[in-house]
Design a protein that fits this description.
heterodimer, A: mainly alpha, ABC transporter involved in vitamin B12 uptake, BtuC, 14 helices, about 75% helix, B: ABC transporter involved in vitamin B12 uptake, BtuC, two-stranded antiparallel sheet, about 0% strand
């Protein structure tokens, strides 16, 4: 009798576990197919935009594709574009996981770049140590820029979309001011001082701007993945994002979790800014227009959503978007299409991803009409 | 103290601070009339976007894509004005394009059950790429376009200062929409759609129509604000013309607790801060003393401060940003 019960339990358990694996797998499949669908929708809508203004989308896309994947150097260049995007995507993703819409990566990346210039150009340290100190200083400055929005959220309930955007604009003017008035070299106001040799990452392939900083970025993504999936703090963060009430009953300290989500996001964005200064030849400096860090935060939002806010998915999505951004530069000289169209396509992909019901709707439609 | 009295005290304090700033500015050689003129101009796009979004959020739809709508309609407005050779037509084109985006957003959030925040972010990111692309495609010049003077909307001169007709229209609209929201059956329905959509449905009113109406209205007003910027204020368009104004408008909305008249007041406050920043940045004698970049931070810092002070205890509609699904 007892034996039967155990057997029965075993069967129930195995069915349950099996169902769990199946639902998890099917969720992954749904997620991937939805991302792919959104990508296709975004690219098609982008093509329509080109047709509408008299450009040739086939020419533009083939130029883009060749520019992004045409040779090993081109692909390395695409990877180089992907590096900061995976990091700013982490900022957005870890916010979403905790139930926040932290769109402050843009400003935090400016501050990270400023931090990299300060520590990289003004300190004199032995080679390995200088690199580490500069990276850490940049990450700290990025996180510092996230502290006030985090505190405003926790203490006053100020929505993070508003506070982080305001901080982005304050950072924009502050960073420009610092470069032009305090960090530029004599006679060259349009660019900051370059970081010293000891604070530069090594170029991997000559001819492309890919440096060893990509290992740091990928390591950061994997660390975030492990934090979310294998630690108690990561579990609490996800629980708060998925079900705030359940989290409260389980004794999760929501304020602490929100704060840590902002800070980790700030580290990631600060690092993203630093990669453009320390890990990107030939400038090794920050432009007075902020041209080499501008837009990273907003591109990162699209990358995070395409990667389904999963750090591993984000690495793949960042490579895709890096290729789009790298290849997009060739559209302008060869097909006349303004390279910024790539950003518009990113926006269209995000809009397409805002419809989680679309796949369910298609399924319902197919069931109803037996297609 | 009740919340209403508290709000009134805070607003009174705001007026006092404003007066002190004006006197101090006067002391430093800035003309108060010019400051108010700049403030009213800067207020207009903020107020238009904020008033529309107040009504929209009352009905339970949250559109954080205001920034993107402002950007897109700024281009649409200039294009329309050049085609027709008339600035007022341009404003109308901006309004129509804005209404169209709002309408699509309404459809998406009502029938597509879209995640409204993600869709709003999508509109903003799209606009940041689309606007430079379109400026290049239409005028074959990167990132900036100055339309001929004849198609701009002129300011009206009064003895004290110059003012735009659109600014006056904005203030009238704010009062009218306040009245609509609190004194008419339509206003009641809008509030019900945000608070308890099911009750509204049971009473025989289509929640989906109400929400699509408010989303379209919000888009139209934001579109008017977008076209106002190049046509009646700056006299030209650059690719980042909105400069965060869509989000400052959202700050007005949440600080006001979704009240159009209060939102109008906040829009004036933020507009004034912006006007002050620009006036300081161009006034001889002052501009040399204070770095330009630091002055331009003022509007954003003021926004943060005001939101932090006023947001406490605000209550938002229960069904905000949640799609309403009818039972089968």
């Amino acid at each position: 009798m007892k034996h039967d019960t155990v057997n029965f339990l075993k069967v129930v358990l195995s069915i349950h576990l099996g169902a769990l694996v199946v639902t998890r797998l099917s969720k992954i499949v749904t997620d991937i197919s939805q991302s792919l669908l959104a990508l296709v929708a975004g690219l098609l809508a982008g093509a329509l935009l080109m047709v509408a203004y008299g450009y040739d989308p086939l020419l533009a896309y083939s130029v883009l594709f060749r520019g992004a994947f045409g040779s090993i150097t081109d692909f390395a260049e695409s990877l180089s574009f992907a590096v900061p995007l995976m990091l700013t995507a982490i900022t957005f993703a870890i916010g979403v996981k905790a139930g926040l819409f932290n769109i402050g990566a843009e400003g935090q990346a400016y501050m990270g770049a400023i931090g990299a210039v300060i520590a990289g150009a003004f300190l004199t340290l032995p080679s390995g140590i200088h690199l580490a100190v500069t990276v850490i200083f940049a990450m700290l400055l990025g996180a510092l820029w996230a502290v006030v929005p985090a505190l405003l959220k926790i203490t006053r309930g100020v929505h993070e979309v508003i506070s982080t955007i305001m901080f982005n604009w304050i950072a924009y003017h502050l960073a420009m001011y610092l470069v032009l008035y305090h960090l530029s070299g004599p006679g060259r106001a349009e660019v900051s001082l370059p970081v010293k040799e000891t604070a530069r990452f090594t170029v991997i392939l000559s001819g492309a701007s890919l440096t060893t900083v990509i290992y740091v970025a990928v390591a950061f993504c994997i660390a975030t993945y492990l934090f979310l999936s294998a630690t108690k703090a990561g579990y609490e963060l996800k629980l708060l994002g998925e079900n705030p009430d359940a989290a409260r009953y389980a004794g999760v300290n929501a304020k602490k979790v929100v704060f840590s989500s902002f800070i980790i996001g700030g580290f990631a964005a600060g690092l993203a800014g630093a990669t453009q200064v320390m890990g990107r030849p030939p400038t090794w400096a920050l432009y007075g227009t902020l041209g080499n860090v501008m837009g990273l935060g907003f591109d990162g939002i699209g990358v995070a959503l395409i990667g389904r806010n999963n750090p591993i998915g984000i690495i793949i999505a960042a490579i895709f978007f890096g290729a789009l951004a790298n290849g997009g530069r060739y559209m302008e000289p060869y097909s006349g299409v303004c390279s910024e169209l790539v950003r518009a396509i990113n926006g269209l992909i995000i809009i397409a991803l805002a419809f989680p019901e679309i796949i369910a709707m298609i399924k319902r439609y197919r069931m109803r009409y037996k297609i | 103290m009740t919340r209403k009295v508290k709000t009134q005290v805070k607003i009174l304090l705001g007026v006092v601070v404003l007066a002190i700033v004006l006197i101090v500015a006067w002391h430093f050689g800035l003309n108060p009339g010019a400051l108010i003129e700049a403030g009213l101009l800067a207020m207009t796009p903020l107020a238009l976007a904020a008033i529309g979004e107040c009504i929209n959020e009352k009905a339970g739809v949250v559109n954080i894509g205001l920034e993107g709508i402002l950007l897109i309609t700024a281009v649409a407005g200039v294009y329309g004005a050049e085609l027709a050779g008339n600035g007022y037509v341009g404003l109308l084109v901006g309004m129509i394009v804005g209404a169209l985006i709002g309408f699509l957003f309404g459809l998406a959030s009502v029938y597509g059950r879209a995640d409204q925040i993600v869709a709003g972010i999508g509109i903003n990111v799209f606009a940041v790429g689309f606007v430079p692309y379109v400026i290049m495609a239409l005028w074959a010049f990167p990132g900036i376009h100055i339309p001929p003077k004849e198609v701009l909307v002129p300011l009206i001169s009064t003895p004290l200062m110059r003012i735009s007709a659109i600014t006056i229209l904005t203030i009238i609209l704010g009062i009218l929409l306040h009245y609509m929201l609190h004194r008419t059956p339509l206003g009641l329905r809008i509030k019900a759609a945000g608070e308890m959509p099911m009750a509204l449905d049971v009473a025989g009113v289509r929640v989906d129509y109400v929400r699509i109406f408010t989303a379209t209205l919000g888009g139209a007003l934001t579109g008017l604000g977008g076209a106002f910027m190049p046509l009646a204020w700056f006299g030209g368009i650059v690719k980042e013309i909105s400069a965060g104004r869509g989000f400052i408008a959202l700050a007005c909305v949440v600080s006001s607790g979704l009240e159009p008249l209060l939102a109008l007041a906040f829009a004036f406050l933020f507009g004034f801060a912006e006007g002050l920043a620009y006036t300081v940045a161009v006034t001889p004698g002052v501009k040399e003393a204070v770095p330009y970049h630091l002055v331009l931070m003022i509007p954003y810092i003021v926004t943060l401060l005001v939101v932090t002070i006023f947001i406490g205890g605000r209550r938002f509609p229960r069904a905000m940003a949640t799609p309403y699904v009818r039972e089968e």
